[in-house]
């Protein structure tokens, strides 16, 4: 069995989606790219989460050809592959329709930095990407790249994060990106929690975004001081 460790990681991260209430039924997917072979491991299409296993993960090359696996890969595979082809520094992608973050996507609204936890993890506004059609299949991936590659990001964020880690696609849902599938999953969980709190606050009143100088302080503290080194 090819890429045993990556298969297991991708499987575990897929199983975290329903556990964290980020998906329903068979929606959503996690993938991971092996930097040595450039093969991508991804969830199979339309299979219930309770029926998944590491062995049922599908391995494809960067052109979408199935390298190993008896099941069809996720219908979102090409969207992932467009990103992987163009960003060698991305090794994990998560896609969900988690309700609170997707509510902002539906309205075409970015999420300002209202919360210190938002400043900690992301250090910048969560951006909104354009509506992308499902056909041609590459359009979703291209819409993601337009946002991932934007260079007008705060300097304190670019120091630690060379690519945009979260993109809300208009009328669609949420994509998160990391160096690994585990990192991408962490961002998917955090953005839904942040979006939920923002949604509740906006229903009660008009919160004020943090000023840039405070965002930089929280982000720097989190990325340079927080945790065990």
Q: What percent of residues adopt helix (DSSP H or I)?
A: 40-55%
What would CATH call the homologous superfamily? Class II aldolase/adducin N-terminal domain
CATH domain class? Alpha Beta
Query: Number of DSSP strands?
Result: 8
Largest sheet report: 8 strands, mixed
Oligomer: single chain
**How confident overall, as mean pLDDT?**
97
Number of domains: 1
Lateral arrangement of strands in the main beta sheet: 4-3-2-1-5-8-7-6
**Count of DSSP H/I helices:** 8
CATH topology: L-fuculose-1-phosphate Aldolase
Q: Cα-atom Rg, whole angstroms? A: 17 Å
- Poorly predicted ranges (pLDDT <50, ≥5 residues)? none
Structural class: alpha+beta
Strand residue content = 5-15%
Spatial shape: globular
Task: Detail the topology: elements first, then pairings.
Layout: H1 4-19, E1 29-33, E2 40-42, E3 58-60, E4 66-68, H2 77-86, E5 92-96, H3 99-107, H4 116-121, E6 128-129, H5 138-148, H6 155-158, E7 166-169, E8 173-178, H7 181-204, H8 212-224
Parallel strand pairs: 6-7
Antiparallel strand pairs: 1-2, 1-5, 2-3, 3-4, 5-8, 7-8
Helix pairs in contact: 1-7, 2-5, 3-7
